[in-house]
């Protein structure tokens, strides 16, 4: 029984790794779309989101089958329940990347952002690209050090997010009203990707370490 | 065993009903805070969010215990897994109400919105108040008719959300830049409460009807 559980759980872990890879690509490519603006990249993210959704459905399916057939308890049960939640988190990161790509497509061939916002969004995207790479490392190695780094660094993204508001409120801002709307939404989407990254990292730390399942970390601290 | 499962599941259902009630109050009260502006109402929502988080933790705990002790299969298993996801959805609706309350507190004694946005936000809030009441009915009676009504009506909120952008882009708009930022964020929070309401309604339809667990409805269609 134990052997079957481990084998089936390895298959789920493979799907989760694939999911992390797909989400990482979506994050990188939506950034490329935004900073271009690059319509082809935007379309790639939009079209690719379905594959992420399907991976989530597959993970849910496998986890439910596992619960039904193997009736895991203790640590095994905790891993399955946390994996379900982790898959939902990844799925939402894919959605957010798609939202960014959709904003790019809406305003193309213009950029959704005015030139004075470029530097700030480049820095936010650089942060998210690092996060995306770390997600892949974290999942392929169940690496809690990488996960902890994700959690610690999130403040930087929150600061950049705050700076987007400061910019919009400053005299430096020359953008249109539509660009103001897009700036607020895009910055929010990017901040949310970071928040979900933290949520995913907490969950991996939780899966790898060995707590009481009732102490399952809250999905997201202060976010929707 | 069956009897124990039903009894324990009834306790979870009680907590879920309580959660729906707390979320409903948060939605109503954050609307009152926004449309006042009413600082006391805002503070009430902010302070009350912890109780919603604790209910979610309690539901997770009970569901994990149920999975461990009773090893439910088939429909019972589907109900437990869906309940876990439903609790996460409610928890996020509480977070979003808190975000609205925090925006009110930030700008108090001023309103975060200019007068020309009032009518539109009153209509959005009226929609959300109806949604909040329906959530309570849906959970207390496992009423799929109410759930279906929630799903069908969501288009109305999406249209109102779109109108907030139209207003901000029109000549009618007299608000400050800060109010433009707040309008975009507040409208997004409110639209997201609606989306999560739809997600909760789909899940209840799913729990009450009898599908294959692998066909678990996607949490949220096109949202983070």
Automatic annotation (TrEMBL), chains A, B:
Localization recorded for this chain is: Cytoplasm
* Broad class of the protein's primary localization: cytoplasm
- Fetch the InterPro entries from UniProt: PhoU, PhoU-like_sf, PhoU_dom
PhoU domain: residues covered: 17-104, 122-204
Keyword set, alphabetical order: Cytoplasm, Phosphate transport, Transport
- Entry keyword Transport: yes
What's the superkingdom here? Bacteria
Q: Which residues form a coiled coil?
A: none
State the oligomer form and interacting partners.
Homodimer.
Q: Which PANTHER family match?
A: PHOSPHATE-SPECIFIC TRANSPORT SYSTEM ACCESSORY PROTEIN PHOU
Q: Which family does it belong to?
A: Belongs to the PhoU family.
Q: What does this protein do?
A: Plays a role in the regulation of phosphate uptake.
Give the protein name, as stated in the record: Phosphate-specific transport system accessory protein PhoU
